[in-house]
Every structure is written in structure tokens, then in C-alpha cells.
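Q: I'm writing up a methods section and want to include an example of the input and output format. Could you take the sequence below and give the corresponding predicted C-alpha cells, formatted cleanly so I can copy it straight into the document?
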Amino acid sequence: MVEQTAADLGIRWRPEVHRDRGDGLMIVVEKGRIEVLTTDFPRRLGDAVRRHNLATAPDVRIQLRLALDAGYLHKDDTGYTGGVLNRAARLLDAPEFKARMRDQGAEFAVIASEPLCDAIQGFHLLDDRRIEKVTVDVKETHATAWTWVP
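A: Here is the clean output for your methods example:
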């Protein structure tokens, strides 16, 4: 579902930048794709989740959380490292984000770091009426982020 959505938007699916993390997936996208990641990708991925859930039995329906962030990554023989990856993981685990999703009965939601949102502020890339500020206090991460539940 994620791979197909990415392919539909021209995001190249390369094994070295798309790593399975057990119950998650890390996708590293080259510079210049921020607009796709903050507009079409979340919208289409949310649509794909809804289509999947409508076509399946309740016990195999999914919920999907998407964290978006931007920053410097270091690549070595084992893959990518960098604070931005840790921050994205902490965003996904934020209790306030999970509670918002649960309270709205959402099957798909997005959380984006404050630095990313600052960079795209004013461009109205997602429906601003549905964006809410949350506090992230997970492990060593204490940050502000923004959620979007379509």
C-alpha cells in the first residue's frame, strides 16, 4: 500500500532507503520532494487505507500512523542514522497523537515535526482546519508537533 502510493507519485522505491522496521517502515526521500510528502502522499495513503478497510473484514483492518520530518541524515554501511530518525520515531509514539487518533476513530493520521511545519507554513499543503498542535514527551524527546487526521 505504501510502496504503491509512493510509486504512483514518482517516489522511487530503493531498498537502501526503504527499510522495514518490524511494525513500521522508514522511507528516506531525496531533497526537493517535500511538497509531495506533505500533500499528495498523505492524502493518497489515507485514501488507500480507507479503501483497504472498506474491502476487508473488521479483524484485518488496519490503522496507519505517518510521521513526517526533515533533516540531515548520515549514511554508512548499515544504513541511515541521525537525530531526525529518532525524532520521527518519537513523534509516532506520542501519547497525545495516539489519543487523538483513537478519540476520532481514525484509521489514518499524520504527525509532522515543528521544524518541517515551520518550513511549509503558509503554503496550505494540508487542510489547515484539521491540523492541531500536540506536545511530544517521549523518552528524551520534548517537542511540539502538528497532527492531521483527515
